[in-house]
Prior knowledge:
One of its GO terms (cellular component) is plasma membrane. This protein is an all-alpha fold.
Amino acid sequence: MSEQFQPLAKPRLSLSRFAFYFITLVALILIYLKFSEIQLIKEIFLRSNYLWLFSIIIVQVSSYYFLALNYRDVLRIKDMDIPIKELFPVTFVIQFLNQALPSAGFSGQAFFVQYLKKFGLPIAEGIGRAILELATLYMGFGTFFIISAVMIFNGNKLGDRPEVMFLIYGFSFLAVICIAVFFMLQKRGRGRIARWVINKLHAYFEKRNKKKIKNGEVSGNENLSNHTEHVAMIYQQFKDSLRIGVLDKHKKAFWLAYLWQNMIMLANIFTLYFLSFAVGYEISFVVAFITFTLTKFVAMVSFVPGALGVFEGGMTLILISFGVPTEPAFAMTLLLRAFTFWFPMPVGWILYRFYLHREELEHPYDDLPAVSNNQQ
């Protein structure tokens, strides 16, 4: 009895590998476009106090550790316990993807949802985890913004500037919307607004599919996509994840996750504060607190991908408003951007490549076509 084997077909370019090459290309283009800024950062870096810069590196690494702690406690709300040693490296990958593919954080979250599937977390629950993370992020930032507003009204020179008042009004408006949505989600079933949105989407997709069939673009037997169910699933995850009963049941994990978001904000504020010593123009901690918080808000509501340019311009102007000369204000801003944006990128890229390679080793035949063996 003899066996005949067909040789394995040449592996195709997998989707994950294509994504890796594409993201790498985008990152290189971004570096090329901002190369003059990177050169300027290098010059400022070489003129700065190395001891303070080393302290800043420690603070920034700790911010990633706090983010990993936030991930751990958010996952505990979903009844999952993943060790920090698994989550800490992933934080760099998520940050890298969010930087290379500016998409309001969706690119990094999409990777994390896929990554968590190996631990048995379904995609729907992964979306719920992302919702909880965003909730703790907004709560933490809101706390710092309110403290900043109190500092501003407490005799600070920025209190007389109309631009700052517009930021405070804008934050108040968004905060009211978020609180209203939270209480709306506590209602049983779908609220009137949610039902109206989902029904409108269903009608839109049905109309679009009928038009495609009528125009002969597709046959009537094809299963046409109707994304209404996806919208309904996301809405249900909002309800399931942010229910007061669920949060009360896991209140320790939830409030710890909120605490770690506060620690991340505090680490970035200390980074700006230490940078003032590094460039030789010391600012007070209050100035660093207000400056970073207001700049963070401007970056969060900006429509510019990655807030590139918006972050730098906003922070420089706020520092100048506090009486900081233009040159040290610009130097602090660029170095902060370097430590929070540019320097972690290569670390994230290396770890992303590592995770991709590990995935290929664990599932080596996922991208190969099926091969039949003929036995005679």
